[in-house]
Amino acid sequence: MKFLRFTPLLLVLAVFLTSCSSVRVASDYDREADFNEYGTYAFFKPGIDKAEISDLDKKRILRAIETEMGKKGFTKSENPDLLVSIFTKTNENINIYNNNVYPFWGYGWGWNPWYWGSGFNTVSSTSEGTLYIDLIDSEDKELVWQGMGTAALAREVNKKQERINEIVAKIMEKYPPGFEK
């Protein structure tokens, strides 16, 4: 019986812990491409320049991609097999928690526009970003693989690189296709 009492608490705790740092990822690829042929890469500057983020964040993302490509055995080259491009999107999510337990607190009976019940109604916002990493065959100039990751973004400057590294690593786990962890 004790187990049944603690199960809901453990379930809520598990959901909370996994939702805080989760990165949702997906990938797609050209089924005709032979991914064993690729060993070198370079960044596709025209594509990267179109990404609507700060130059500092672009550098952070490119550093993280370089690290992950190196882990996969790729080397940077002037004559690459693959071109790497990125694309980003951001969304601002606004969460409103209305915790009015009793009708005379907050917006129930006795509503008062100059009184906001302490701790009973909260509004928070989070920035969520989606990063697309495109791998383009340099000879054919065709997209052969695309990875996408969506996650909450870090607001503190000293945590941005760490968060970007985590997002890029999760995306690159999907490359090459069929060899995911």
UniProtKB/TrEMBL annotation:
It holds the Pfam family DUF4136. The lineage of its organism: Bacteria, Pseudomonadati, Bacteroidota, Flavobacteriia, Flavobacteriales. InterPro entries: DUF4136 (IPR025411). Residues 1-26 form the signal peptide. Residues 25-177 form the DUF4136 domain. Keywords: Signal. It comes from Christiangramia sabulilitoris. This is DUF4136 domain-containing protein. It comes from the Bacteria.
